[in-house]
Design brief:
The structure is a single chain. By secondary structure, the protein is α/β, with parallel strands linked by helices. It has 15 helices and 17 strands. It has helices spanning 19-31, 42-51, 68-78, 93-101, 114-152, 156-171, 191-197, 203-206, 222-227, 272-318, 326-350, 362-372, 374-379, 399-415, 475-485; strands spanning 11-15, 35-39, 56-60, 83-88, 106-109, 176-181, 186-189, 231-238, 244-255, 261-270, 358-360, 382-388, 395-397, 421-432, 437-446, 489-495, 499-507.
């Protein structure tokens, strides 16, 4: 089948068994002016790929019949120029690594933003264009070299012109390229070598600035000169701009007479970002394992804690209030209860949040949260002002989980106002211009002590708390996870000494 590799107008293929996702992507692609087709499963998509030319594919991983990973492999066999962006709601590390190994251009976790999708499509189109141009260039390189060699014999002027053309190509390949002699002197280098390693004339002297990294090792061209074998390794280097970057270098020897290495050609690539992504994936995998261990330990600890609490409370009930051990037992009871709260929060953070399947009225959830904390609000002299748009539509969500979020935020606000104060609850409809979608915007404002500037970035981290021994440090971390599970986002803004605003956006 003869296929034209260059498409005048790029066409996108959307493959997802969820009609709502397909419809949303189709609207967004149409808005951005793309030509596109969509398929409900891998089999339908495979037939379309065989008969049409697509620049980019957006595949859901979990699909019936032919799943996204299998479809990716089949796509690569049919059209190696097609860039595939994988999406899924379950971003397991193993699945991410497998899709990237099998040639996926990018991986996006659901729910995603259309800005994110659009940005990845633009990157994929650019990468596709570069790959096609590079392949075409290599395909014609041998013919081009033969043609240029014949022309260069005719004229010294033509030789200079062709040399300039070759240097321009080497300057624009996106990697560092240099030629060294056997002593390490740099005979020629392109602009990337100059940018990354500065104005040095000897590679060995440049490498004196290497940073220590046991995972990457050190770079030296001595082994290539002595052994006469190709060498590939990574190293880290503090560049002239002060940033430490990680590089992959491929050194190829040029053999002269008597089998001696006379020159070394080094191809150097900046792999800082690639290595960072690999480390992040490994870190995520370790965190997932730690979460499972923590949940198991919490279950094991919970039972003896409950027994201790029950025994202490029984002793307290039978013990005279004036008994000298009464105060110590009270402390044991308080600390045991606190430990139980920490374990409960830890278990909640480790468990999967239930699926969203109920119609939710945010005003009813807010009223229920206030009723739950009615005594606490009155005891702490905190007044509440509620402002809710009467035309707010209901939305699909988990009312108990959302109630937990509001209670966590209310408790933080109450704790920030030890002398009493006021909490304002605003809920209205918000138009997201970039996505052309409406969402529910919630603001919970208090006039309490606020958050110190150095701590504002820590509030969503597990186990961070400003309440001392009264808090577990898991309330906002769990709340953030719940809101993101609903497809929304949560932000905290605060001015120390003047109060805090919690802003929540949820899709309607």
């Amino acid at each position: 089948m003869n296929i034209d590799h260059h498409i005048s107008k790029p066409r996108i293929l959307v493959v997802d068994d969820d009609p709502a996702v397909r419809e949303a992507l189709e609207k967004n692609l149409a808005y951005h002016g793309y030509d596109f087709d969509s398929a409900k499963d891998g089999s339908e998509a495979l037939d379309m790929i065989k008969n049409k030319r697509y620049a980019v594919g957006i595949y859901d991983i979990l699909m019936p019949n032919i799943d996204g990973i299998e479809l990716l492999a089949l796509t690569n066999k049919i059209d190696r120029d097609m860039m595939v962006i994988m999406t899924t709601g379950k971003a397991q590390v193993e699945i991410v690594i497998e899709t990237l190994k099998k040639g996926a251009f990018a991986f996006i976790r659901k729910p995603f933003s259309f800005d994110e999708i659009h940005a990845e499509i633009q990157k994929a189109l650019k990468q596709r264009e570069l790959c096609i141009e590079n392949r075409d260039y290599h395909r014609n390189l041998e013919e081009l070299v033969e043609q240029r060699t014949a022309e260069l014999r005719k004229s010294k002027i033509e030789l200079i012109l062709e040399k300039e053309k070759l240097e321009n190509v080497l300057e624009s390949i996106g990697a560092g390229l240099q030629i060294l002699n056997s002593r390490g002197d740099i005979i020629w280098k392109n602009r990337f070598v100059q940018k990354w390693f500065g104005a040095v004339d000897n590679w060995n002297r440049a490498l004196e600035e290497q940073t220590s990294d046991s995972n990457l090792g050190k770079c030296s061209e001595c082994d290539v000169v002595q052994n006469g074998e190709v060498s590939t390794h990574q190293f880290s280097f503090k560049c002239p701009d002060g940033k430490v970057r990680e590089f992959l270098v491929n050194c190829t020897p040029i053999i002269g007479s008597f089998r001696k290495v006379v020159k070394v050609v080094s191809l150097i690539q900046d792999v800082t970002e690639r290595n960072r992504i690999e480390r992040d994936l490994l870190h995520s995998e370790r965190l997932a394992s730690m979460g499972e261990i923590a949940a198991s330990l919490a279950h094991e600890i919970n039972n003896p804690i409950g027994i201790i609490l029950g025994l202490v409370q029984n002793i307290l009930a039978d013990l005279d209030k004036e008994h000298p051990l009464n105060e110590d037992l009270k402390i044991i009871e308080t600390e045991t209860l606190r430990t139980g709260r920490v374990i409960k929060s830890l278990l909640e953070s480790a468990h999967e949040i239930p699926a969203l399947k109920e119609e939710v009225d945010i005003l009813e959830i807010w009223k229920s949260s206030l009723k739950f904390l009615d005594y606490t609000l009155k005891e702490n002299k905190v007044a509440v002002v509620t402002r809710v748009d009467s035309e707010l539509p209901p939305f699909i969500g988990n009312p108990e989980q959302l109630k937990q979020v509001l209670i966590n935020i209310l408790l933080n606000a109450i704790n920030a106002m030890p002398e009493g104060g006021k909490i304002i609850f605003n809920a209205d409809k918000y138009q997201n211009d970039s996505h052309r979608k409406s969402c529910l915007q919630i603001e919970i404002i208090d006039d309490g002590q606020g958050i110190e500037p150095g701590n504002i970035d820590k509030v969503f981290k597990p186990f961070y708390t400003s309440k001392g021994r009264k808090g577990t440090g898991l309330g906002l971390a769990i709340s953030k996870r719940i809101i993101e599970r609903h497809g929304g986002n949560i932000q905290i803004k605060s001015e120390f000494g003047k109060g805090t605003t919690c802003n929540i956006k949820l899709p309607i």
